[in-house]
Design brief:
CATH architecture of the largest domain: 3-Layer(aba) Sandwich
Number of domains: 2
Radius of gyration: 21 Å
Number of strands: 13
Helix content: 25-40%
Strand content: 5-15%
């Protein structure tokens, strides 16, 4: 077996972080962040405080609004975009539906999406079929979504290309700079789901040239269900009309009884009524931790653990089903033992042994965050070896 410890050299105090923020590490090797991430202890404490304020509203003195502002500001820094271009919503599907329904369409227009994408990215665009809009699915090449195939699918009727930065099944990572250049050259709007990357990998929206970027908060952002972020560029805002208006969408708020549709000048126009205040607080709290660790350091640690997993798997009779090219791999690794039944059995046995894994269409899925350690990789490899 390879000496796995050589792969993980965190630049931060990972043992102290794990003990303070993620006490489940005393029992679990948790490698299923692509399904849901455990919440840091600090965030759980913030939620308890927010719930106490709901029980006694006299305690509420503007903290909920402050958390929402902080969340947008930290998201802006994480994506390298102005905070004003970010709306806080409830989930990825809502974010994409706001964009899909806010654009002006003609019958025969097309939206290009890779096949086997995450459902919440797909359904908002499929629903445009009622307007005569057609979704064109790009065939995958094994574990890969080939840029040339996306380019070939774009026609003069294509209005939008919608993709995940990191695909959920096997962690394939798109070359976003190249995809962004393609979309700009073809005058096509680029909508990106960063749910499987934001919070663990660098996300540089200006460098990509993406028009729309969205993520929900319960995976790598370590917040909770019911909170999500939507970025819309200034140029795209001119094309995406608000379709779910409410008192949060307009400058007058709930006190303006003239009911003037004076939209906020920024992305708040896409927020309708009262947001998920507790979710916004959870998001702000977990983003503090992400910023404390640092995007580069966090990405290095997560991918180092993935490297350690791969080193162990290469010595075992399994098939890697992820694209391992440096430009396309991520912190998510998938493999198969040869059959869905054996993969399912392996995931169950791993859980019995205190190792939490995922399983999707391409096999067993391992998803490491910045607070995972080489010890987690070693426990996983021991489980796979024992199942031979």
């Amino acid at each position: 077996m390879p000496e796995l410890s050589r792969f993980a050299t965190p630049s931060f105090e990972i043992d102290a972080l794990r003990a303070a923020e993620f006490p489940l590490t005393a029992r679990w090797a948790y490698l299923d962040h692509a399904t849901v991430s455990p919440m840091p202890a600090r965030t759980a404490a913030v939620i308890a405080e927010r719930v106490a304020a709901l029980q006694d509203p006299s305690q509420e003195t503007g903290q909920r609004e402050a958390f929402a502002r902080e969340g947008r500001e930290r998201l802006g820094r994480l994506m390298r975009v102005p905070a004003g271009q970010i709306a806080l919503l409830t989930n990825l599907a809502e974010a994409m539906a706001i964009v899909a329904n806010g654009l002006t369409w003609r019958s025969g227009d097309e939206v290009v999406i890779p096949e086997q994408e995450f459902s919440s990215l797909v359904y908002p665009w499929l629903n445009l079929g009622r307007l005569g809009v057609r979704v064109v699915f790009v065939p995958k090449d094994g574990p890969t979504t080939d840029l040339d195939r996306i380019a070939a699918a774009i026609t003069p009727r294509t209005r939008v290309v919608a993709v995940s930065h990191v695909e959920f099944q096997n962690g394939f990572r798109h070359d976003m700079a190249a995809l962004g250049a393609l979309c700009r050259d073809r005058h096509v709007l680029l909508a990106v789901d960063v749910t499987q990357s934001l919070g663990v990998l660098p996300v540089d929206v200006p460098a990509w040239g993406a028009d729309v970027v969205a993520a929900h908060g319960y995976k790598w952002l370590m917040a909770m269900h019911g909170i999500a972020a939507l970025f819309i560029s200034a140029a795209a805002m001119e094309r995406v009309q608000p379709t779910v208006p409410g008192r949060s969408s307009v400058t007058g708020g709930f006190e303006a009884l003239d009911f003037a549709l004076d939209w906020h000048p920024d992305a708040r126009r896409y927020q309708s009524g009262g947001p998920n205040w507790i979710g916004a607080a959870a998001l702000a709290s977990s983003l503090r931790l992400i910023e404390e660790v640092g995007t580069a350091a966090g990405a290095d640690q997560a991918t180092a653990v993935a490297d350690a997993v791969l080193a162990g798997l290469h010595a075992l009779p399994v098939e890697i089903t992820s694209d391992l090219r440096p430009t396309h791999r991520s912190q998510i690794v998938s493999f198969t033992t040869g059959s869905p039944e054996r993969d399912k059995t392996l995931v169950s046995r791993a859980r019995e042994g205190g190792v939490s894994l995922g399983r999707r269409g391409m096999g067993v899925r391992i998803a490491s965050h910045f607070w995972n350690s080489v010890a987690d990789a070693e426990r996983l490899i021991d489980v796979v070896r024992a199942a031979e």
